[in-house]
Amino acid sequence: MATVADSGTAVRRPSGAAPPPVWNRRRREALAGYAFVAPDLLGLMMFVGLPMVLAIGVSLFNADGFGGYTYVGLDNFRQMAGDTQLWQSVRVTVTYTAAFVPIGFVVSLGLALLVRDHFPGVGLVRTLFFVPHVISLVVVGIAWQFLLVDKQGAVPTLLRPVGLGDTSFLGDPSLALGSLVAISIWFLMGYNMLILLGGLKDIPKEYEEAAAIDGAGAWQNFRHVIWPLLRPTSFFVLVNSVVGSVTGLQAFDLVYVLTQGGPAGSTSSVVFYIYQQAFTFNDHGYAAALTTVVVGFLVAATATMFGLTKGGRFDAG
Amino acid sequence: MSAFARVTRRSLLRGGAVMLGSAAAAPLLSACGGGGQGGNPKELTFWNFYGPNPQPDAQSKWFTDLAAQWNANNEVKVKLHYMPVTEYLAGRALQTAFSAGEGPDIFLLSPGDFLRYHNGGVLTDLTPYLGPDQIADFADGALDTRKVDGKVYGLPMEREPLAVFYSVDAFEQAKLSEGDLPKTWDQLLDVAGKLTSKDRFGLLFETIPGYYQNFTWYPFMWMAGGSAVPENGGPGFDSPAVHSALKLWQDGITAKVCPRKPQGDGGTDTPANLGAGFAAMQQTGIWGVSQLAQNNAQNNKDFRYGVFPLPVPEGGTYTTSVGGWAFVANAKGANPEAAAKFIAWALGANDAEGVERGRRWNTVVKANLPARTSVQEAAKSAGAFDDPALKVFLDKVVPGSRGEPRYTPEVYKAVSDAIQATQLGGADPAKAAADAAAKIDTFLKGYKGAAML
């Protein structure tokens, strides 16, 4: 059988062969994949990608917040080196991250292991651990402010018998950041617990049973069976926690509601500092430059972590 | 071949990048143009934190009545836009609107924020719309921080002086009487110590960093003879007077007679602190009178309190800080002239109706001191200051007062850092003042905006 192309050139095809399918399975799957991703992709482009591009553009200007833009090249980036308050905020964020990420992970993992197996009321327990995460962070902040208030708060009142009734958890610079870390962990532990629980549920029971038959105890079972197989999930939780501790809601909302960066700048995180540059000092150009550097740092850090750990699989070939 | 079939990962990303770039360029370019002249010149937007409040109260009604009365007699209408006070004070909505060239035609502005907006070129000169008698009617100093080069850029709605409120019950429990009300800084800390118990602080100074904390600390600096920026050839921020004012607040914390973290909204919130028994004395503003009255009414309480002027340091001169919001018009709005006329009518009209409007705002729906002499006289005649607390404000607190200063954000932040470092961080007052002074001096060398007062 012969077909004639538009040009009139005859193209021969082996007799009996079917025409090449335009919509072969691979293409159909690809299209379906793009269709599934499209809503998220559009949202990302609109609410993440576009602001990032805008921030890079604005960072090259002196933007006074009243419509005045003056091109200043890289001056806003050069300003960072001599900005002592910025570095103080970096120290705050690094300290917060160094405390929040490992402690938060261990707590979440502990909870996930606790509610992994079935016991009466396990659903309720899981729900109770997750409940803090469904509350608005602003409400969380107000509630904890109430609980921690000097002298009359529930926490100082409970601690009075042990001589800590006069402790100011949010007003003492040596305690305020620690209090924010504790509240952040309380807020996020249920969410991370749920993700780790998903990872734990994916580990076949047979592996643990085999280890038990070989005489492995609880710790050996965790160390040699659960932990290696949980690495990809753990990696996701850790990356998420690092990014969240630098730019997440808890790094701004809690600071804004509870301390306003105080006392004495002890909780002024980098994102709160950026906010102040934009909305207190009207220095939108500098704020945009800071944002660009923070995002760039996080992208580089995440890419490095992905590279070093092979996307959290560690030992994948 | 179908268009869909041509979609590859690479082409999708390439297309996305082009779209992103195009989308990014448009707002950036339009933002460069600036200005809010694109609004409706026949309808002025008025951003405020009073009305129309979804939970209507007397203050909200005063605002809606004001707009309705203007709209009934003028071709250019005023449309109120309400937002909660916390959102307004945070500055994000207002700032974002101005950044986008969409600032409101009329808005409320405090002295602490005046220079930011004035130096940004968005405040309209109201002087052409005010007669000399109208300007003269504003009480001594009421317009000072709203003027630049003799031109008026904002009309104050009210005067809000600071004093110390105290709980009568707490005094009685500590076996103290009116004769023990502190007159000096030493006495203030001494009395605070006597009033402190296991569940109550003796004295509350604001501890939350921000404009308000600075506003409440400035009087102590002034009373000791200091200033944030050099005044009349003075030394500026690094002075013994500033050190002593910083130390006073620090001593309150180290002696454990002042809280590190107040309740509720902090130093502005009298029901949550003084009224709730959290503190026996609280430095706050005249608004505390209406807050406590409302709190008593809502909770069927009879909280007894009194007011006394801020204590003075040894050898110092009494003063206090007087705040208060003003109506201002956006110079880059759609119709600045009409906005200025509205403000001149709303707060500056000196006919009987205008005076009555001012009286109602200051002494009926709120508890303030009026910014205008004629309004104050009308309020006096109506018996507004028969209330003992308001009488103290009028007779003892306001005489010798000074308007809330207008400093740039850079100066405000340096001062704020010094207050925070000493009060809560335990820093040496002299070192904190020197650090702040260095920042202020560096900034002032390159400063070209309106004078700081």
Descriptive report:
Chain B: This is Sugar ABC transporter substrate-binding protein. Chain B: Keywords: Signal. Chain B: It comes from Nonomuraea longispora. Chain B: Pfam families: SBP_bac_1. Chain B: Residues 1-25 form the signal peptide. In chain A, 68% of the residues lie in helices and 4% in strands. Chain A has 317 residues and is mainly α. Chain A has one domain (77-308): MetI-like fold, CATH 1.10.3720. Chain A has a two-stranded antiparallel sheet. In chain A, strands 3-4 form a two-stranded antiparallel sheet. In chain A, helix 5 crosses helix 11. The radius of gyration of chain A is 27 Å and the shape is flat. Chain B is of the alpha/beta class and 453 residues long. Chain B has 2 domains: 2-159 and 324-390, D-Maltodextrin-Binding Protein, domain 2 (3-Layer(aba) Sandwich), CATH 3.40.190.10; 161-321 and 407-445, D-Maltodextrin-Binding Protein, domain 2 (3-Layer(aba) Sandwich), CATH 3.40.190. Helices cover 46% and strands 12% of the residues of chain B. Chain B contains 18 helices and 13 strands. Chain B has helices spanning 9-33, 58-73, 85-90, 92-99, 111-119, 132-137, 168-173, 185-195, 211-223, 240-254, 270-273, 287-299, 336-348, 352-365, 373-381, 388-397, 409-423, 429-445, and strands spanning 43-48, 77-82, 106-109, 147-148, 151-152, 155-156, 160-167, 201-204, 279-285, 305-308, 321-323, 326-329, 402-403. In chain B, strands 7, 8, 9, 10, 11 and 13 form a 6-stranded mixed beta sheet that branches. In chain B, strands 2-1-3-12-6 form a 5-stranded mixed beta sheet. A two-stranded antiparallel ribbon of chain B has the order 4-5. In chain B, helix 9 (211-223) crosses helix 10 (240-254), helix 10 (240-254) crosses helix 17 and helix 17 (409-423) runs antiparallel to helix 18. Chains A and B meet through helix 1 and helix 12 of A and helix 1, helix 4 and helix 17 of B.
